[in-house]
């Protein structure tokens, strides 16, 4: 996947209340005003749900306020607005490819950009402690730092 040729990146997780909003916020923070549209959605999100409190707290530790975030369920309209799709787990990538007929060259798993190439997914901290959310945010940050190098 040549991520540098994309003008819009969609981060995808399950509920769009933990991992994908963190990935969206962290990448936006690293590449502001570069003409890249960065957004997020969830394969099974409840439209309008707020980010988890620990997600908001974890992002505040990076100096980013996402208290305004509202979940969006992945749909065809959102898909058509995006060039590149990054999921948190391989199973989510398979689901998106299958359900929305996304070409393989336009979708990948975010963990592929992490410096530790043995990482195959970004774990879901949902329902865990703030320390788990922080660990998840650090993993995501390692990935998006690598992506930011392309822009």
Brief sketch in words of this structure:
By secondary structure, the protein is of the alpha/beta class. The protein contains five helices and four strands, in the order βαβααβαβα.
Looking at the overall shape, the CATH architecture is 3-Layer(aba) Sandwich
Overall radius of gyration: 14 Å
What is the overall pLDDT average?
94
What fold name stands as the CATH topology?
Answer: Rossmann fold
How far apart, in Å, are the first and last alpha carbons? 14 Å
SSE pattern, N- to C-terminal: EHEHHEHEH
**Beta strand count:** 4
Number of helices: 5
Which descriptor suits the 3D outline? globular
Broad structural category:
alpha/beta
Beta fraction of the residues? 5-15%
CATH superfamily: Response regulator
Number of domains: 1
| Major β-sheet annotation | 4 strands, parallel
**In terms of per-residue confidence, which ranges show pLDDT below 50 for 5 or more consecutive residues?**
none
């Amino acid at each position: 996947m040549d991520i540098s040729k994309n003008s819009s990146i969609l981060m995808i997780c399950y509920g769009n209340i933990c991992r994908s909003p963190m990935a969206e916020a962290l990448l936006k923070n690293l590449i502001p005003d570069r003409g890249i549209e960065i957004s997020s959605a969830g394969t099974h999100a409840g439209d309008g749900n707020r980010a988890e409190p620990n997600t908001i707290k974890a992002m505040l530790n990076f100096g980013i306020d996402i208290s305004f975030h509202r979940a969006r369920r992945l749909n065809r309209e959102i898909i058509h607005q995006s060039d590149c799709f990054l999921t948190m787990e391989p199973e989510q990538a398979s689901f998106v490819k299958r359900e929305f007929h996304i070409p393989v060259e336009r979708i990948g798993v975010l963990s592929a950009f992490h410096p530790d190439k043995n990482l195959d997914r970004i774990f879901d901290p949902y329902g865990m402690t703030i320390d788990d959310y922080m660990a998840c945010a650090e993993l995501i940050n390692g990935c998006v730092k690598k992506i930011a190098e392309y822009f």
